[in-house]
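For reproducibility, we list the full input for the inosinic acid complex.
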Amino acid sequence: MFDDETQCVVLVGVQWGDEGKGKITDVLAEQATLVARYQGGANAGHTVLVGDEEEFILHLVPSGALYPDVRCLLGNGVVLDPWTLIDEIEMLTTRGVEIEHRVGVSRRAHLVLPYHKQLDGAKEASKGADRIGTTKRGIGPAYRDKISRNGLRVCDLADRDYCWNVVREGTSTANVFLAHFGVDERADPDAVMSELAAVTPRILALGTDTGAEIRTELAGGGRVLLEGAQGSLLDVDHGTYPFVTSSTTTAGGAAAGVGIGPTLIDEVLGVVKAYTTRVGAGPFPTELEGADADRLRNLGAEFGATTGRPRRPGWFDGVLVRHAAGVNGLTGLAVTKLDVLDSFDELLLGVGYELDGVATTGFPERAADIQRVRPVYEKEAGWESDTGACRSWDELPEAARHYLKRIESASKVPIRLVSVGSARSQIIRVG
Ligand code: IMP
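The corresponding predicted structure, in tokenized form, follows.
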């Protein structure tokens, strides 16, 4: 992906997250000098296999962490849970990955505080069957405080009085909401302040200006990967609102989320699973149920990396991918988990939607409509053979190549990478 013309690549999830971005980031990070996350927080869960068997699950630190010379940044668009970050740095250090001197966090990044997590959990519980199915990592409440100008940023940790004022106000508002949501627990400003005091020196030491760092890196000939978390259909504007996360997951958010101009971005690579999954509530037109769903879930080990929840599986949805391709301006696709489909004798591939018997012209805006659409499917022959050992396009079975070509024509984006297993080596470069 990186070459003399391509110095800055954005990597985004094309579906509802869990596309296997960790694996692809890890593959690209081998050629990168700097990897930065631009949105989301500890709701993400990237699974990366090193040496074909050692598994790392990362929630905040970018996947580039596993290459010893890569600088890893968390941009201003991220909401940072400082305790999770420190735990993750310690986990990596204990497992032999020296990381602390390579991580930087934007001084402009907002913090996820304990009362954000309390509010996330209490709100979800109060909504019963209407809940979003969040990861309960405090993401929505932290972004709400940011946008409503009540947030606390990394740079603010240097000013204890300022922190106290924000925390006092934040806990007092949180307690009104907690009472409204019908829970007994309350936020305690003194407890928050002492928990913050325990991490302040380490977090301040990691503080940086991520935009300035990235601009300098690019000017010096470095290679920068901007890593998105979640997926395009969880984007707060372009996803299946309100069943979305609270940030701009799509490529447009990358520049603002680290502090550079969009003109510095050369390529946008979309990571797409060879089928579809979703975790949490919300509409899912090509969702499978019953035995087929169990089969795909088990073959693909489709359980959330952050919450362990079983993911909802379904067929590949070309309408959704075309929508994401347009919103992100995708220049290439990385198709993951092709091998999961190896044993199917027949596959369905969604190529259109009908709403009340009429073909839709695009991806509907309203969740209620997305819930009601009927997918139009094409049948594709399965290949019923093992693709895990394939390392080139030509080694793939004919039917698998045909299936991939159909993904390409449905999304109108060229395929650049195909992943045929979780190991680093199980990757096919196309073109
Ligand atoms: P939140 O981001 O925790 O507020 O959750 C909002 C929605 O995004 C829920 O449906 C979550 O399941 C989903 N979500 C958040 N992070 C991820 C992720 O990394 N992968 C897949 N789904 C996610």
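Residues 160-180 form the longest helix (21 residues). The longest strand covers residues 346-355. Both points were considered when choosing residues for closer inspection.
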